[in-house]
Amino acid sequence: MFKQFELPFPHNALEPHIDTLTMETHHGKHHAAYTKNFNDAAAKAGVADMDIEALLASLDKVEDPALRKALRNNGGGYYNHNLYFSTISPNAAKSPKGELLKKIEAEFGSLDALKEKLTALAAGQFGSGWSWLSVNKEGKLMASASPNQDNPIIEGTGFVPILAIDVWEHAYYLKFKNLRGEYIKTLFEVIDWSLVEKNYERVVK
């Protein structure tokens, strides 16, 4: 059974950056629904015991098109939201340290330049979707965007996301309305780069 990420802080802890009602709705309702629907589809498809990343990378092996679609949409929603919620914090480290920071500076020039790139990708995503910072096993970084609940694993890039920026309207509309750019700017106030670095280290090892 796939488990929804449990927040290590209350829903109001990210105020004033992310409001309480958005957290209650986004985590408590949307993410919970993706998790339930994904578990139901995974059980029907007989893949409930698979590693989530391996499952998302092999969706083309699911023969039933309806089940494959359900796994892609809800499995992506489950995985993407687990990543999103697991890298935000009320006491966020504003910068990574060590190897990740060196890689960011080497490949993007600076952390601020990477933030600008991720912001542009997120703001420019037409409709619902995400922007990502991802890494492959060799340690190469990639900034990208995906529509809907897709991600670099589903897209077969060979990269694993380590940071997710959610630009579905349910992530920001209650507080920011149509001001997606203001939400993205505010989100960086609660992204914990020490947690992003742990994700980097898990992939690169």
Can you characterise this structure?
The protein folds into two domains: 67 residues, Orthogonal Bundle (Helix Hairpins), CATH 1.10.287.990; 107 residues, Iron/manganese superoxide dismutase, C-terminal domain (minor pseudopilin epsh fold), CATH 3.55.40.20. Helix 1 runs antiparallel to helix 3. A three-stranded antiparallel sheet has the order 2-1-3. Helix content is 50%, strand content 10%. It has 205 residues and is mainly alpha-helical. It is built from eight helices and three strands.
Structural class: mainly alpha
User: Order of SSEs, N→C?
Assistant: HHHHHEEEHHH
Total beta strands? 3
Major beta sheet, strand line-up: 2-1-3
Rg estimate, integer Å: 16 Å
And the CATH topology of the largest domain? minor pseudopilin epsh fold
Query: Looking at the structure, what is the overall shape?
Result: globular
Strand content: 5-15%
